[in-house]
Amino acid sequence: MQFPATELVLDANGAVYHLGLQPHQLASKIILVGDQDRVAKISRFFDTIEYRIQHREFVSHTGTFQGKRLTVLSTGIGTDNIDICMAELDALVNIDLSTRSEKASKSSLEIVRIGTCGMLQPDMELHSFVLASHALGLDNIAHFYPINWSQEEQHLLAQVSTQVVFPEGIAPYLSAACPEMVQKFDSAEVRKGITVTSSGFYGPQGRSLRLPSLMPNIHHALGNFEHEGLQIVNFEMESSAIFALGKALGHQCTSICLGVANRPQEVFSTGIDQAMDELIAFVLERI
Question: Tens of pLDDT along 142-151?
């Protein structure tokens, strides 16, 4: 099967349309970040940098750190951009772009997201490292794909649905991170649990300014969830689509975030540079 030009969109140089990358410019170990500026903040730790590429909000640096070849890629904010990133990253390794045909032998990428988040447990200190074992998606990206949900994912989603009431029309999904990737970053230095991926920053996360949220206490309801010792620990805006699409495409994914706000305590960080550098170093040592 050949993918037509309207499905697999390439630019004049043969790079995938949005990321602007060609296969040789991508490493098999990938760090995703939302913020374009964070790409350079990570790559400055590299020993060498081979490629610096930017197209729209998608900035990528590929290089080496302690003998490991890595790509850092900015996604922008939200799961809509994650849909683009995951499809094009997979295309770079599992589709022959010259013939537009699927490769017989598939490659599996290691993908970790480094981001910031709002924490949902009152005992969590600002600048905590928050590791996602699962992601609860309040977006709709996964509903457009044939995802084979495991029994564990379905059971955990059912437990959430019995404890948390969502506004009419919201159909959450729950996807597990890759256990092997989670194990790489699991330590006494991190708080592990379920990440909630929201489709917005204000109303969807219970914030009310001039336009009130229909669920102003969503952060309390989610924070009160508990099942067999597993808690919902943070809010962010990308992980659910990374986990769901990554699993469906055969890639290994997790996310680890820096807690910049404690929602129950209503406190927000006044500066994260040093703490983010510490999280970056933590991830680079373990990826």
Answer: 999 999 999 9
